[in-house]
Amino acid sequence: MPDWSCGLADIFNEFLATSSIPPYDSKVHRGIWRTITLRCSLRTREIMVIVVHAPAGGGVGKRDCGTDDYSTVFESEKQRLVDMLTKDAIPTPSRDFPEGYKKEEEETSGDMKVTSIFFQEYVGLSNPPPEHPVQHIYGKTSLEERLGKCTFQISPGAFFQTNTQGAEVLYDIVVNRIKEVTTSPQDTLLVDVCCGTGTIGLTCLKEGVVGKLVGVDISEPAIADAVVNATKNGYTESATTRFVASPAEKVLPDEMKNIPKNCPVVAVVDPARDGLHGVVVRTLRSNERIQRLVYVSCNPTGTLARDAAMLCSPPTKKYPGRPFKPTLSQPVDMFPSTKHCEMVMTFDRLSVEEYEQYHDKE
């Protein structure tokens, strides 16, 4: 854990130890303070803090007698927490590292400070969804990160890769896979499914391997950021970039129909752990102008394997079109010291000759 996150944890521990409001107990659903999310950029020295809490009047398990109601002190405690977080630079805690441990150098020098604070009230039993509203309390309304040649705005509910240096390695692989097949980059359209804040698509534009971009994502906060990020990185023309906030299965079929027939198309998909919806798989398979598909997966042994089978299996009524074939896979260690990794798998469409040869054998 980096020093800044340990320092913030110390501040929160001090706050909770002295607060008149108790932390949330997930077993009985009483108490107020639930979780904190810390997002930071070592490159811009910015830290965003999101504090999730139950309603000040009590959680779903509150007692009828009213002893779980902290409405009268909640606002003053919120302000006290904000003051503690923003009073000074984040303190560097004392660390007891094992013998021989070599601390990694941070990318840039300078103190880390909290630059934005949000509070998020949530009455549910699990965790709030990304689109759940937040209350902006302090500082900037977003976090700024630099990745490759691009600068990105990140809102509280928007997904962004947790490892920026690892993401640069990941995106370089995607860029190279697309570059291999784009003979006319400025005329080529990239269809970016589950595009998030637009990081992959805008990186491909910046690297000059495609000339146009259509991004689709279910998260409205992420798409709002993607629109801002396009402008932030110099892409202001609607003919160059367009982002759609919707489940991909609802809009991708029509988006593909609207692409001019003479326009070269490549596709990138970067779904959540649940993988691709069946309608998305069918749409990608049935549009044979997509000769290369780059699949970025955080669940390679689960939904990537499932989706690969649907993309590469013989055509059926449900999944028509000449199938793809996997041509390259590259793991990326985005989560060091864990058993998890990201996988970039490249799929190429079977040629007519390959398909007919395979089909005749069937």
TrEMBL record:
<comment type="similarity">
    <text>Belongs to the class I-like SAM-binding methyltransferase superfamily. RNA M5U methyltransferase family.</text>
</comment>
<dbReference type="InterPro" id="IPR030390">
    <property type="entry name" value="MeTrfase_TrmA_AS"/>
</dbReference>
<feature type="active site" description="Nucleophile">
    <location>
        <position position="298"/>
    </location>
</feature>
<keyword id="KW-0808">Transferase</keyword>
<dbReference type="Pfam" id="PF13847">
    <property type="entry name" value="Methyltransf_31"/>
</dbReference>
<dbReference type="GO" id="GO:0008173">
    <property type="term" value="F:RNA methyltransferase activity"/>
</dbReference>
<dbReference type="InterPro" id="IPR025714">
    <property type="entry name" value="Methyltranfer_dom"/>
</dbReference>
<dbReference type="InterPro" id="IPR010280">
    <property type="entry name" value="U5_MeTrfase_fam"/>
</dbReference>
<protein>
    <recommendedName>
        <fullName>Methyltransferase domain-containing protein</fullName>
    </recommendedName>
</protein>
<feature type="binding site">
    <location>
        <position position="217"/>
    </location>
    <ligand>
        <name>S-adenosyl-L-methionine</name>
    </ligand>
</feature>
<dbReference type="GO" id="GO:0006396">
    <property type="term" value="P:RNA processing"/>
</dbReference>
<dbReference type="GO" id="GO:0003723">
    <property type="term" value="F:RNA binding"/>
</dbReference>
<feature type="binding site">
    <location>
        <position position="161"/>
    </location>
    <ligand>
        <name>S-adenosyl-L-methionine</name>
    </ligand>
</feature>
<dbReference type="InterPro" id="IPR045850">
    <property type="entry name" value="TRM2_met"/>
</dbReference>
<keyword id="KW-0489">Methyltransferase</keyword>
<feature type="active site">
    <location>
        <position position="298"/>
    </location>
</feature>
<feature type="binding site">
    <location>
        <position position="270"/>
    </location>
    <ligand>
        <name>S-adenosyl-L-methionine</name>
    </ligand>
</feature>
<dbReference type="InterPro" id="IPR029063">
    <property type="entry name" value="SAM-dependent_MTases_sf"/>
</dbReference>
<feature type="domain" description="Methyltransferase">
    <location>
        <begin position="190"/>
        <end position="253"/>
    </location>
</feature>
<keyword id="KW-0949">S-adenosyl-L-methionine</keyword>
<dbReference type="GO" id="GO:0032259">
    <property type="term" value="P:methylation"/>
</dbReference>
